[in-house]
Amino acid sequence: MRSVNNFIQYTATGLYCSVGEFYLDPRKPVHKALISHAHGDHAVPNSGVIFTTPATRSLMNRRFQKSLRSQFVDVQFNESFEINGVVITFLPAGHMLGSAQILMEFAQEKYLYTGDFKLQSDESCEPFQFAKCDHLITETTFADPAYIHPNPIDEIKRLAETEENILIGAYAIGKAQRVTRLLSNHCPEKVLYVHPDLHSYHQIYEQYGMSLGNWQPYSKQEFTQQKNCVCVLPPNQFSRFSRNKAVIRYFATGWKRSFFRCDRILSISDHADWNDVLTLVKETGAQKIYTLHGDGTHLKSHLNSSGIEVTLLN
What we know:
Blueprint: E1 2-4, E2 8-11, E3 14-17, E4 22-24, E5 32-34, E6 49-52, H1 54-64, E7 71-74, E8 81-83, E9 86-92, E10 100-106, E11 109-113, E12 135-140, H2 152-157, E13 166-169, H3 175-186, E14 191-194, H4 196-207, E15 216-217, H5 220-225, E16 229-233, H6 235-238, E17 248-253, E18 264-267, H7 274-284, E19 288-294, H8 297-302, E20 309-312
Parallel strand pairs: 4-5, 5-6, 6-7, 11-12, 12-19, 13-16, 13-17, 14-15, 14-16, 17-18, 19-20
Antiparallel strand pairs: 1-2, 2-3, 3-4, 8-9, 9-10, 10-11
Helix pairs in contact: 1-4
């Protein structure tokens, strides 16, 4: 079992704060969970008590619906509270609507868990907020010098180069809403459709004040009878069009290749790239770093002579 200064242990269930007796993004239901955001690899249902932002609660309620049997405690950004003497503050992570970094203070030490995060501008969610800490627990999904994410506006503007109809596969929560907003802002000449499976998530975003622009429900008849149309749809629906030659199929991802069959990649990521991770390290001032959700070896090697200690938790 690896530990963070004996304050947080990395267990089979996830990160556990023994002092506060709570888990951070546990992998299975626990008695008390602090959840950073609503994606399935971070938010599992049915922990006894879940501390999270109101937007994440709404997205989890929609995702799990009647199967969700947890007591929620809403946490507002930048409003501190205590659990067993641990002072906790949620800060915007910039990953998706409601996503939070979790800052914990105990015995004059500050521990920052980023969850998933990004520094790129994104008008569909709250922007990332920096904070100083002694111990930084960060995702390293793209913590590799080979990954420098392009400007998402430049990527989306590529779609204006054709009048052929386009399908864009995007994960249902976060990516689909970001792509919708980018299309509405930067490809206004295109008719923008959204698959019915995404409507309720789009509506939650708009309920929390995140306008996604001028989109409309998908109509197969209208889509097939017009040109210059784009439809955003989730991966399970996107896969059904894998052999459709009448459209150009993009998949939105930060990876260099798509895990779904497509014609082209739309290189838009909701995770930090290599430069973002280095900026985070600099701005937090942390001297001890712990990596999760990815390969931390590049970061460890890069910081080897800096005096900053890097520990790979996974």
